[in-house]
Amino acid sequence: MQTVPLPNTSQVLRPNREPLVAQHYIVSFCVVTFLFFLWALPNNLNDILIRQFMKSFQISRLQAGFVQSSFYMGYFLVSWPAALIMRRFGYRVGLICGLLLYSAGAFLFWPAAHIDRYSVFLLALFIIASGLAFLETGASSFIAQLGDPSTSERRLNLAQSFNPPGTIAGALIGTVFILSGAEPSSDQLASMKAAGIYQAFLQHEIMRVVTPYVILSVVVLLFVVALLKIPIPAQTLGPHNKERLTLKILGDLLRHSHFRQAIIAQFFYVGAQVGTWSYLIQYVQDYTHQPEKTAGYFLSFALVLFAIGRFVSTYLMKFIRPNKLMGAFGITSAFLVLVAVLFPGWVGLVAFLCVSFFMSLMYPTIFALGLKNLGENTTLGASFLVMAIIGGAVVTPMIGWIAVTTHSMATAFVTVLICFMVVIYFSFFGSRISELPQRYRTECALPSR
Questions:
Q1: What are the two backbone dihedrals, phi and then psi, of residue 447, each rounded to the nearest 5 degrees?
Q2: Is residue 156 in some structural domain?
Q3: What's the pTM value of the predicted model, to 2 decimals?
Q4: Contacts of 88 (CB under 8 A, 6+ apart)
Q5: What's residue 15's pLDDT?
């Protein structure tokens, strides 16, 4: 097996004419890129579940926010173990483990609905996210290394461009098949209770979540079979590194200031993204008084803008440095959130929808900038950046708590504004590459077929 040397780390930031994806990795790139679509589906089904569970379980916005807390806690707790497994056994094993957990969690929605327990749904979401932690840790770090390091941001943005179609599909599936459109008034609720059919109504609403998730479980299992049959070349650095994880290795990793600050920026960015989409439906209903189905379609439109923004930003990175482009988009996002806070209603909604376009490049760009120059510990570093997704679990219920406390959904989104300020700082200052330890100044090699 021959090796193809990567450019020396001193060349990392130099512009070059290298192809976006090394030719011998094109098939692998296409196969793994499909996972970006697959794991996006449950992420935005969560936004629909929040609204649905508020109705079917009669819970508050704060309690509904625990949908995201349970989900992103799975990312936080499992990302590091996932990285260690892939470090020892390779990407194929890690990706298959992730898909199996993903399928199991989705299937658990069926017994959860029959048991009629909100806590069981939260457990199912945790298991799904545990599987996605494997997928994101493996796929993102893998894609980042399939070519010249100076093009890693563009390469990861291109792969992540297939993530938004998954988010759009998730929101549309949830809007069409989960949201029933039934929003009984207080008088109608009283009539249902008097007639003894109220519990049946709630149970019917809960059961609406079962079919989409069971189908998703089967699809994921089929992809496990496909992944076993598709030839994937021996993967990059992680699977060949059998060195035991030590405090020294962790110390070398955390010595990179740009990596540490990328973790912080990712925490706040994911909090902003998840918080924005989780309560967009509620914002629409509170300030434009549209029914839940219409509000669901507004969420889908926001995700379409997100997808367009991902492709546009990938193209713009050919001419503008990724960190500067992200900084400009971050400033614009912060301004639009401020408009949504100060002018709740149709003006605020339009601004809020546009935020999705400008935040589209942030996750993959922070990820790629944080992984630069990590050498043999790239996979381990990726696990920390995926763990930072816990920001979605922290910020979302915080927004719900502020909304309940202030009786204003708009005021609660000041939290999102603060999150974007952190991203802006990272873009212009925190992403600067720190000096590498001596051990990482050697050439790395990628195995090829």
A1: -70, 145
A2: yes
A3: 0.72
A4: 239, 242
A5: 45
